[in-house]
Write a structure and sequence with these properties.
- This protein is of the alpha+beta class.
- The protein is built from 11 helices and 20 strands.
- The chain folds into 2 domains: 162 residues, DNA methylase specificity domains (Adenine-n6-DNA-methyltransferase TaqI, Chain A, domain 2, Alpha-Beta Complex), CATH 3.90.220; 144 residues, Alpha-Beta Complex (Adenine-n6-DNA-methyltransferase TaqI, Chain A, domain 2), CATH 3.90.220.
- 37% of the residues lie in helices and 17% in strands.
- Strand 3 and strand 4 form a beta hairpin.
- Helix 5 crosses helix 8 and helix 5 packs antiparallel against helix 11.
- The relative contact order is 0.12.
């Protein structure tokens, strides 16, 4: 009966993999750890389906943000380097990883340690694939996504492939080598995009360098019906973030272009609990106020909320939104000069409100924008192509990992993308 169950698992669930690999339940490979911090002084770790296990402090957007709103970290779960950390509420979405650090994590998460002569990094890659995310969803309890929980008994009951240790090591090294090449490829493309944007900025600046003396100077605070920002709901509260459906835009999403999507979302409950959160409509102009992103702008092609590091402008009979969008790109240096603070300088929303900007008629503003678009069309095409190449290489990375952990390889031909 057991042999039959294993064979059925091989064919129905795990698919094709080398015949000499074992199939075992996860309970035979990992043990749950529940040691707790007595001081709360250890390094706080964060778990994300984007980045795996990282240092929480590295995800803070500015130096004024708090690591957590918890009164104390005493009682948080201890994590050792090499442990598997899973956010049980989002296991189905791949919110897990092998920790590169010693530290502590939320008591709501599960910490597992590898047994025997196995490489935990292999299973970290394996469990992040769509195949296992689907299994985690299937074994989670709950009616809707925001209430799904992958408890340890259910996690342990799942079958997994187990290559020999030397093959686990070989696969991990192969994946790391490929990821290193992929990351270098992405870095080069991102640098290329930045150079293109600098070139575009130079063209845009030229259109604002000789303002007509007859243009009136208009104050931002008198020109927009809506001027606002947002807030950051309690960090780590699953009720505010798990399976969120409202776009929550951060400064990292602003990149001097139209904003079609954002990485983070919050729940309706967060929106109801925080009165400072407002949903801004499509067409809203966002300006970054903090840190290295000061002055970055985007026009929203989506509806959503922002955090406190963004200033939102909407509804003006004086300014054509795209004209002001390009004005901020051309005059970012002015905002940087007006910033204050130490290692993470910032500007206030009040500074944006008090800005006086030379303002031609709406028709002239549209003509200026049209000229800018014409002169930068080739650059925009090159930027779009490079961004698409980055998307493709990320898709390749996901497929490469999925194939490698199942004993398959593909030729490393992503350079041809």
């Amino acid at each position: 009966m057991i042999a039959t169950a294993v064979e059925n698992t091989k064919t129905a669930l795990l698919g094709d993999f080398p015949s000499h690999w074992q199939v075992l339940r996860i309970k035979n490979l990992f043990q749950e750890m529940d040691s707790r911090s007595e001081t709360g002084s250890e390094e706080l770790l964060s778990v994300s389906h984007y980045t795996g296990v990282t240092l929480k402090r590295e995800s803070l957007e500015n130096e004024d943000d708090h690591l957590t709103n918890a009164e104390s970290l005493v009682g948080y779960k201890l994590v050792q380097q090499g442990d598997l950390v899973i956010n049980i509420m989002l296991a189905w979405n791949g919110s897990l990883g092998i920790s590169p650090y010693n530290g502590i994590t939320s008591p709501a998460y599960c910490v597992y340690r590898i047994k025997g002569d196995n490489n935990p990094e292999y299973f970290g890659y394996l469990f992040s694939t769509n195949l296992f995310k689907a299994e985690f969803r299937r074994h989670s309890t709950g009616i809707i996504d925001s209430r799904l929980r992958l408890y340890s008994d259910n996690f342990f009951s799942i079958f997994t492939v187990v290559p020999p240790k030397d093959e686990q090591d070989e696969i991990v090294q192969y994946i790391k080598a490929q990821i290193e090449k992929i990351n270098l490829f992405i870095q080069k493309k991102q640098r290329f995009i930045e150079l293109l944007k600098e070139q575009k900025s130079t063209i845009v600046k030229s259109k604002f360098s000789n303002s007509n003396e007859n243009w009136k100077r208009r104050k931002i605070s008198h020109s927009f019906k809506i001027i606002g920002s947002g807030t950051t709901p309690e960090s780590g509260n699953s009720d505010y973030y798990d399976d969120g459906e409202i776009n929550w835009i951060n400064t990292g999403d602003l990149n001097d272009c139209y904003l079609d999507k954002c990485e983070k979302r919050i729940t309706k409950l967060a929106f109801e609990k925080y009165s400072t959160l407002k949903i801004y409509p499509k067409g809203t102009l966002l300006i970054a106020l903090y840190g290295a992103t000061i002055g970055k702008v985007s026009i929203m092609n989506i509806e959503g909320c922002t955090n406190q590091a963004c200033c939102a402008l909407f509804g003006s009979d004086t300014f054509y939104t795209e004209f002001l969008f390009h004005w901020f790109i051309a005059n970012r240096d002015i905002l940087i000069q007006m910033s204050y603070g130490g290692g993470q300088p910032n500007i206030s929303q009040e500074i944006i409100r008090q800005l006086r900007i030379s303002c031609p008629s709406i028709e002239e503003q549209k003509q200026i924008v049209s000229h800018i678009k014409t002169e930068t069309a080739t650059i925009d095409t090159a930027i779009a192509k490079a961004e698409r190449e980055i998307e493709l290489i990320r898709e390749y990375k996901e497929a490469m990992i999925a194939e490698a952990v199942m004993g398959k390889r593909r030729n490393s031909n992503f350079e041809k993308i």
